[in-house]
Amino acid sequence: MLLPYFQEKFIEAGCDEAGRGCLAGPVYAAAVILPKDFYHPKLNDSKKLSEKDRDALRLVIEKEAIDFAVASIDADEIDKINILQASIKSMHLALNQLKEKFEFIIVDGNKFKPYKSITHQTIIQGDGKYFSIAAASILAKTYRDEWMANADSEFPEYGWKKNKGYGTAQHRKALSIYGQCVYHRKSFKLKENQLPLF
Questions:
Q1: Does 156 fall in a domain?
Q2: Per-residue pLDDT averaged across 74-100, rounded?
């Protein structure tokens, strides 16, 4: 059972990212402020939901959230600053876009940099514990999946509509045949055969 908030005193924004472990495409992040009495029986960590449920929940979140925002960092910048820094930066960019004032941030995972002077709390597997982080995980995931599906029409050989840029066997095989494209992260290496992406 997910909890509605980490603390009750301050207005809380939940943050999460999607695409950190991918070989291609941007990393996406979302920040969400939900009403304290928000509840949805299916809301959970995006990885535990079907694509259909994620898409349906995205509409609910966008309609019922007090505020939400989504941001991304592209593959070129990921290569320049590394994926951890890009993940944190994308969360900061999402927080920047929130119009509603918030006084506390809860973040999925165990790595985050202070955002302005606002107190934050990192929570391991927070997307399976708190509604606002779960909501952020769903927005980040669905927006990123949409981007990858559009990119698939440019580069169908990598199968991104299905693998979303993750290092599946199909994606790795395509890389060994076609090499990388402009959306691949050059700083990432394939573990299989240690085939470099640069």
A1: yes
A2: 97
Determine the Cα angle at 107 with ends 27 and 82, to 5°: 35
Half-sphere exposure of 198 (CA within 13 A, CB side): 8
Q: pLDDT per residue over 19-50, tens digit each?
A: 999 999 999 999 999 999 999 999 999 989 99
> Which amino acid belongs to residue 172?
R
Determine the average pLDDT of the residues in 45-68: 96
Structural domains in the chain (count): 1
Full residue range of the structural domain in which residue 186 is found: 12-190
Give the pLDDT score at 191: 54
HEC string for the chain:
CCECCCCCCCCEEEEEEECCCCCECCEEEEEEECCCCCCCCCCCCHHHCCHHHHHHHHHHHHHHCCEEEEEEECHHHHHHHCHHHHHHHHHHHHHHHCCCCCCEEEEECCCCCCECCEEEEEECCHHHCEHHHHHHHHHHHHHHHHHHHHHHHHCHHHCHHHHCCCCCHHHHHHHHHHCCCCCECCCCECCHHHCECC
For residue 1, name the pLDDT band (cuts at 50, 70, 90). confident
Give the CATH number for residue 104.
3.30.420.10
pTM to 2 decimal places: 0.93
